[in-house]
Amino acid sequence: MDIKKMLQSDHVKPYISKARYGIEKEGQRVDLSGDLATTDHPEKISINDENPYIQRDFSETQMELITPVTDSLEELFSYLSAIHEVAYRSMDENEMLWPLSMPPSLPKKEEDIIIAKLTSADNVLYRRHLATTYGRRKQMISGIHFNFQFGDELIEALFKSQSETNDYKQFKSDIYMKTTRNYLKHQWLITYLFGATPSSEENFFEENSVNEPVRSIRNSKNGYTNDEDVQVSFISLQTYIADISSMVHKGLLIEEKEFYSAVRLRGGQQVSDLEDDGVKYIELRNIDLNPFETYGISYEQAEFLHLFLLYSLWKDEGANCDESMNVGESNNEIVALEHPLEPTQFKQEAEHILDELESLVTTLHLTVSEELFVNLREMLIDPSKTLAGRLYSESKKSSQGQVATSIAKENYDKSWDKPYQLTGFTDMELSTQNLMFDAIQHGIQVDILDRHDQFLKLQLNDHVEFVKNGNMTSKDSYISTLIMENKTVTKKILHQHGFRVPGGEEFNNIEQAMRSYELFSSKPFVVKPKSTNYGLGISIFKEGASFEDYQKALTIAFKEDSSVLIEEFLNGTEYRFFVLNDKTLAILSRIPANVKGDGTLTIEQLVNQKNQDPLRGLDHRTPLETIQLGELEVLMLKGQGYELDSIPKKDAIIYLRENSNVSTGGDSIDVTDLISEDYKKIAVDAVSALGAKISGIDLIIEDLKVPAATENAYGIIEANFNPSMYMHAYPYQGKSRRLTLNVLHYLFPELLQNQE
Amino acid sequence: MDIKKMLQSDHVKPYISKARYGIEKEGQRVDLSGDLATTDHPEKISINDENPYIQRDFSETQMELITPVTDSLEELFSYLSAIHEVAYRSMDENEMLWPLSMPPSLPKKEEDIIIAKLTSADNVLYRRHLATTYGRRKQMISGIHFNFQFGDELIEALFKSQSETNDYKQFKSDIYMKTTRNYLKHQWLITYLFGATPSSEENFFEENSVNEPVRSIRNSKNGYTNDEDVQVSFISLQTYIADISSMVHKGLLIEEKEFYSAVRLRGGQQVSDLEDDGVKYIELRNIDLNPFETYGISYEQAEFLHLFLLYSLWKDEGANCDESMNVGESNNEIVALEHPLEPTQFKQEAEHILDELESLVTTLHLTVSEELFVNLREMLIDPSKTLAGRLYSESKKSSQGQVATSIAKENYDKSWDKPYQLTGFTDMELSTQNLMFDAIQHGIQVDILDRHDQFLKLQLNDHVEFVKNGNMTSKDSYISTLIMENKTVTKKILHQHGFRVPGGEEFNNIEQAMRSYELFSSKPFVVKPKSTNYGLGISIFKEGASFEDYQKALTIAFKEDSSVLIEEFLNGTEYRFFVLNDKTLAILSRIPANVKGDGTLTIEQLVNQKNQDPLRGLDHRTPLETIQLGELEVLMLKGQGYELDSIPKKDAIIYLRENSNVSTGGDSIDVTDLISEDYKKIAVDAVSALGAKISGIDLIIEDLKVPAATENAYGIIEANFNPSMYMHAYPYQGKSRRLTLNVLHYLFPELLQNQE
């Protein structure tokens, strides 16, 4: 089987880079001084042992962050950062994650290292066994496990390009076995480049028991290793399975997961599943935490690992595999224990491998980051550029502990910097980011079915819910959203149910609307597009309008929709009631886009200044939107006698819009607790009349002190089937309402039952 | 109170023409020879006595068609025609409606006139009373009742423009009382113009008992009148109520509805409701069926009645109202009994009224049909232009019975001409027209909430359902339709559930898609926009594609959507499975737009010829769509070596599209009975996996004889949340499936329970 030829065949080429990835990343919780945390695992992270994203590893302080399996490195890192942010924002505010694989200074008494307080007795027993066998200190080492799977399309194409076997499962396992052997043989290169555990902190080793600094304590015999008697051959899948079983049988391993090789073959839950199903993917376990990366590993590292695995599949093996793997292992031990600032004794071999890797990129037309090889070669030439080298050099200025603490603090600050967003998903809407945050925190699996379209699949055990845009769910009927989408239909139905709605007419062409000027000219009225959202194309005339202004407003509105409504303008303040499942959960008052004069700056300058606020941005990616300076704003200013370069008096409030939507630059103020129950009930009943379960319904109320039952006390303007939720969570003023969490609880009521 | 001044005030002017209308139209069922039907009321018209649109009046053969209340005459006539069409298409195929108010020749024995077989004993008893009091023959006369209400805005504006009273209810009743009195005073003019019962048919009168011809038997003492002792004053609402009550008390009337005045005041169900609520609207009862109008009354007549009622409100009354009304009544008797071809003796008065009407139009800036006054004046000058005159003149050539039969036959043909549509609603989608037809037939109230948007409210007793586009309902969840709208998400979910879907990729920009050329170039594949419907922008390459064609297909697809899918092309025939509530109700095979060569015509000419078929049209208003000759069609022809002016050989089938959507000119063939249950179950299960209740799901099946469980037996292309239904009801070939009726039964399961 000529794998090199197969990899270059035209049928294989399109799929050569297809792969799936997953990362498990451990790390110790510490306080802001860098001391091991003494608190329990954060309560905010739900479903204890079973959260698929955030778990405890050996100790109560050792957080394990687990990404889902992804098809791209971009998505992998999106999830990795999101899970980090959820972890950070769920911990005590004075806690952070230790950025090194080697733990921070440990308690003097080993028993003061607290084994993870899991609910499953088996899980606790297993950890007790580890504590007895290896000692609690050793178990406090953290690392990255990098799960890797060649794309199915790639393996299928390879399979089809040969004729030696028609046993697909065996073929696939062979692919992984070869890859694994070559990886193990050259693992010392990974240790050289990315080893990052030069020194230990207090109370990890018996005093003076080891020489430090090295490249990687963790990847040396002083790290995380099995008893020397544990010998497992990778010569074939069958020998691997047989050896592991035999070790377990002999009592040298309690179960497969205790086998600490740099690579673990993965099939199903048990080793025996490997026998039935073959190798599905492999787990690289020899990656130290990269101290200089917020999430413990860089994109370039992951890219290199993928390339290195392709190389391992590509490269011919010598005759005696077991022998050369043993050489590989002892080379790794040598490299791991080298001084981090000294060149490695395998420099020449390393250069040769890099040459081969680079030529492989050319041969297979692979795409890699421009700087990848430059950086790798630099690390080879200058050991101080390796991770261990960098960490050790930095540490000499103060101490490794201080360096780690200061890095941890930077990561901590970063994770709290924009608490409303998930760094990896800022291309998605804020409400969706918030919902994803809540889901991860509550242990609900999040599968992004369509990132561009904000389409999520949420799953908790067997319970699946689909959500789009954060609040479009299975709970609303199709027709109720179509009713809300159609303002004329909404009003008709509300009117039939006895709610007050503004009178008005619908027009389907501008000429027809022009002819009806007399119907509205002398009254307060609003011109608005029938179906569009976010207040676009709306003009308000509080004291009637000239024919010219009427015509202009119609032109603007007809730009947004082929149907336009002209409606009676109701006096009062507009409130947005967020109703979910027959409850009013939040009420916002929204103030139209405005600036406050300082007597010096022009309106345009004031707007630009106000837009500098990092909370303001575009397209619902920030809690508030940038104020625009378009046609409508200019028209509105003109109505008040201003132009863009007018300089308003000090403290004068200048409005740039009539409509108060946050999406057109308005300010949001939470008033939920200020509004009486009778109005909340009006909102609930109106939403119910529309047959809806989730709706943002807009009421005009002239005087909050007047009971809702009074005639003309309120008027309902419209109901929104996709009400934004982030503006309630991050109002300009007032209390935050985490509505995404309400949505989650509505979709998964079992979350609340679990809490009882 | 100066009503003239009030009507001219600026505040009233905008509302001057606002009104609401309703029509009740009776008519006798006859066979195609014009003989009174001997059959029962059509079984297809459901809920017997309570259908709000189609009822029986006095006799079993006398159909009463009732429009809902409308805000415009246009909508009124839309409904009137729709209800007629439902009535016609529900009757025996050899029955039609008699177009005259005077019944066709009646049975010799009065008892052979069958009283309507209603289920309510009260209703039957009342008709027996009428039979005894007036005779069955008299009760066989039919007519139009025109219900009229001034717009609330108009009455409110009038109320606000005066200060004499602040009792709105009384004010409103006074408005109607004055209007009624003036109407009654001048009712003879209506009789002159629109009287249309010059002669009776056999067995209506005792032989030679009356002189014929006249203008209106129905509006004379020989028509439909109470005993002379029945005297009711219209001087005020109070006298009206008191007089009616007294007549009932004396036994002269059995109830109010037996009071046969030309105008009836309408409040609630009972006269006593008038006392509580005042007059809500008035019912004009003196309109003979217009024999020359398919629906018994012309738009111009209705327009005239509205104008005449405004005139009645406007015109000053003399001092003695009761007296002048008596004069009006006796004048009416005179006019009714005049010879239809002789001028009326009140010609001068009539001219004066027309002058006043015309000047009122000017004064109040009213809009009326251009020809209205020309026609009215012509009728006044030339009595043969009046309805009675025309009917009598026509009848002289043969007989009135023959004229009526021939007109009835024309109306009959017209109502069956395009059985798939409702003439009054051809601007709406065919599926919505079909659903409205079914609803009317089943006695479900149809309220068009938004005509432009195909938005209906359906109501049966207290049960309300909203429907958009014929199949968007409360039964589907919002998220399931969003899933179906997103082809990528649909495929992911179906794939996760184990259904076979074509492999493929999604691209969000054309450059990214171009770079992936290699992934598809050598395989059969399809390029399609992600979200659009109706097969727009789809290109199919059955044997791979050149880079140029690949690029062109991408350009076409990206024109339709910002995301484009490239998918494996599955071999086989595409079938559309229509699934409703876990049942496959219909399956269509669709053949792409095509023409058959005749050896003479060019492809363009053949297309134009095929498009002549009246079943083909645009925008889902006909069962089949017009074949287009756009960019895609030209590309498709080019692929086969043709151009638009190529002349195909005789009988050669030339395809103009790859995709087979009916909406792009394809032909539809019903194959429901040809496809085995296992495939139907696949469709049902797949729709269920998407959480949907109503869906049109497209399966590719290579060989119908291969069981569905066989590997790769089928592939699912997409699921549609708004599948067109008319193409199943009116396939190009095969059995019709009335899916709108299934939708109706799904929404209103009580319809089926009623049948049991």
Automatic annotation (TrEMBL), chains A, B:
One of the entry's Gene Ontology molecular-function terms is: glutathione synthase activity
Q: Which domain of life is it from?
A: Bacteria
Q: Which PROSITE patterns match?
A: ATP_GRASP (PS50975)
Q: Which cofactor does it need?
A: Mg(2+); Mn(2+)
Q: ATP-grasp domain location, by residue?
A: 491-752
Q: In which pathway does it act?
A: Sulfur metabolism; glutathione biosynthesis; glutathione from L-cysteine and L-glutamate: step 2/2; Sulfur metabolism; glutathione biosynthesis; glutathione from L-cysteine and L-glutamate: step 1/2
Enzyme Commission no: 6.3.2.2, 6.3.2.3
This chain belongs to the protein called Glutathione biosynthesis bifunctional protein GshAB
Source species of the chain: Sporosarcina siberiensis
Give the gene that encodes this protein: gshAB
